[in-house]
Design a protein that fits this description.
This protein is an all-alpha fold and 469 residues long. The protein has helices at residues 4-17, 23-30, 34-37, 39-62, 64-83, 88-116, 122-151, 155-158, 160-174, 188-211, 216-238, 252-282, 287-294, 296-312, 317-335, 344-371, 378-417, 422-453. The protein is globular and about 75 Å long.
Length: 469
């Protein structure tokens, strides 16, 4: 029984989305600004994304089950510390501690599933785990709003305690045991370099919109990140036991599937960022009404992901994944046509198409990644997959936000020059920027579809993870 992995996956993804709606209450409670309270979210995201690959390697060396159980303990204790935080600084530190545990759960969960499930049922098993991801992301804003309104912001962390305790004991009882730990020295230099390089990359992507993309701090951080990644690659190529086996990227299936995953999340987070603004600022809907209109996308993904997983066990998954991203591209292009006069039915149908496309894409693509590597590299593959997902979220948010803001500013200047002002100016500039951002997101989805199509077939059932290069 591997379903306890879904419990940990649900908790870690839930906490990535449940906090945002409670930020105003946290800001008022501690008497701090909105820009400062955003560190509650940013600290969690930075730490998780920077540690995923290291945890994947640790899973290969010390056992994925051991890392998963440790993650449940750390995450649950971190949740308690967050709820009891007496100061804002303590809360941010507790979120960092919580993220350390969440990263363990995200990094090794797919590896446990892949090792435990037979090759001809891998897609089905990963599809069920994909449901846990989507349910966690979808329930976060709704559950967070209900709990915060009824019991205060601390309750969004208290709710993790019974789930974490139950998940730990169920995991100890039901998850398959690990083998003997691998007798290798852990690559400390590689782990530190990758952690610092990821922090230097993700910080400006999160903060660039506030500080300005041409700020010396932002540009300098990008430069430091590039240098650290170069040093990391040089160290890993010379290491006898590297944290990241760079030879895996000689495998076209592994490489192109990860690229597809990264770009798919870059495209998808245009919806996450911009649709609430369209529904509330342009259409004038309430937050609760806007939230209800956004539900169809994750709901369809929950329904479709297991089915696409079953199909991927029976046919060449690259065609499923490519077809899914093509549907996402169509959905993005349709969303770019929305105006202030569009109906709720139109936006809901377009989001259903996005959910269908993402549901068809995600599980077969994830199955290809996990099936393309040898058994002793499942943890690294799992960690890389989680890293691509998180980096895609951050990059997608930053890129779509920058494209929208830049286009809106240029349109506002052009419309003012034509004598347009007032509400007409706001509506036209917002709509034009919205259209531009979604057209670009559709192009990203087409690129992801092309990358998926060129990756080559997966030879399932061999157990070697070998594919033609």
């Amino acid at each position: 029984m591997i379903w306890p992995v879904g419990v940990g996956t649900f908790m870690s993804t839930l906490d990535a989305s449940v906090v945002n709606i409670s930020l105003p209450q946290m800001s008022a409670h501690f008497g701090i600004s909105i820009s400062a309270v955003e560190w509650v979210v940013m600290a969690y995201l930075l730490i998780i994304s920077s540690l995923l690959l290291m945890y994947g390697r640790m899973g290969d060396m010390y056992g994925n089950r051991r890392i998963f159980l440790c993650g449940l303990v750390v995450f649950t204790v971190g949740s308690l510390l967050c709820a009891l935080s007496p100061t804002f600084v303590f809360l941010v530190a507790a979120r960092v501690f919580q993220a350390v545990g969440a990263g363990m759960l995200m990094a090794v969960g797919p590896a446990i599933i892949t090792i435990a499930a037979p090759p001809n049922e891998r897609g089905k098993a990963l599809g069920m785990n994909g449901v846990a991801v989507q349910v966690g992301l979808a329930c976060g804003p709704i559950l967070g709003g209900l709990l915060t309104t009824a019991f205060g912001w601390q309750s969004i962390f208290y709710v993790n305690l019974p789930i974490g305790v139950a998940g730990y004991f169920l995991s100890r009882r039901l998850l398959p045991p690990d083998g003997e730990p691998v007798r290798q020295q852990f690559d400390v230099r590689g782990a530190v370099l990758f952690f610092l390089a990821m922090i230097a990359l993700l910080f400006p992507l999160n903060y660039g919109g506030t500080a300005g993309w041409r700020s010396p701090l932002i540009l300098g951080s990008f430069a430091v990140s590039a240098c650290l990644f170069a040093v990391f690659a040089a160290v890993e190529l010379r290491s006898s036991a590297p944290m990241m086996d760079l030879t895996l990227f000689r495998n076209r299936l592994f490489t192109m599937s990860n690229i597809s995953l990264l770009i798919s999340f870059m495209a998808g987070y245009a919806v996450t960022l911009l649709m609430p603004f369209y529904l509330q600022d342009l259409r004038g809907l309430s937050a609760s009404a806007a939230g209800l209109l956004l539900i169809p996308q994750p709901l369809v993904m929950v329904l479709v992901s297991p089915l696409s997983g079953v199909l991927s066990d029976r046919m060449d998954s690259r065609y499923l994944s490519s077809g899914g991203m093509f549907l996402v591209a169509i959905g993005m292009f349709l969303l770019s046509t929305l105006t202030i006069d569009s109906t709720a039915l139109q936006s809901s149908l377009f989001l259903v198409l996005l959910g269908l496309g993402n549901g068809v894409f995600q599980t077969p693509n994830n199955s290809s990644i996990m099936g393309s590597v040898p058994d002793n590299r499942r943890g690294i593959a799992s960690g890389m997959m989680a890293t691509m997902r998180n980096v895609g979220m951050v990059v997608g948010t930053a890129v779509s936000g920058a494209m929208f803001s830049g286009r809106q500013a240029s349109l506002t200047a052009a419309l003012k020059a034509k004598g347009i002002a007032g509400s007409a100016l706001q509506v036209q500039s917002f709509t034009g920027a919205f259209h531009f951002a979604y057209v670009m997101a559709g192009i990203f989805a087409l690129i992801a579809a092309g990358a998926s199509l060129t990756r080559g077939p997966l030879h399932t059932g061999s157990g070697t993870g070998e594919t033609p290069s």
